[in-house]
């Protein structure tokens, strides 16, 4: 039991809404960090039914995962405009928000930036440079000036007004950004640890063979070279973001007033 202003309260488990834009996306390192924190995860599989959280009051944080669609593909994904508005409402309320890959592009759209389609293709493990602002930011401060992480995207976006660029690469200048206290977008897939990538390799083999010829055949060698460092970086990022989630405090009534 903890006391605030002389009155006892208990912390509820943090409740995190996860938006899955494409089947079998996987939380990987982020699942491990949320589990360590005792978080309750509620999945919203919009690729299946388009259902989103009704409002922001039921969750302490929002995660928007990746997908094969673009952040502008409203015609084929009718839930997208409402998801854009939802991410902005979470952010404006001071709650922790995380957009990964497509999620970062949706987040950029929510804050008035432009999405650029098909001009920034990256796949596989790549080196990411951390900006001076990123080296001072809670999300990336433990990673030094550069780290290796997994990428899978063709689109990118301009930096939203008021956002801080945290990481960059030659292909996509805006690899990570922060807005306010705890609204983060990462173009790279820090959640994609070796287990998630193994799942993607099996689930999406035809797509991978088309966009990255030879990668499947060379996967074992590439994983031996890069997966360990990428997994460590991804878990560090996941733990740092989870540490920014502010939980609800529930005041406990005394027996005398019960």
UniProtKB/TrEMBL annotation:
Record keywords: Glutamine amidotransferase, Hydrolase
A matching Pfam family: GATase
EC id: 3.4.-.-
Name of the protein described by the UniProt record: Type 1 glutamine amidotransferase
Alphabetized SUPFAM superfamilies for the sequence: Class I glutamine amidotransferase-like
Highest taxon above the source species: Bacteria
Keyword Glycoprotein set for record: no
Occurrences of domain Glutamine amidotransferase (ranges): 29-193
InterPro entries linked: ChyE-like, Class_I_gatase-like, GATASE
Molecular-function GO terms, alphabetical: hydrolase activity
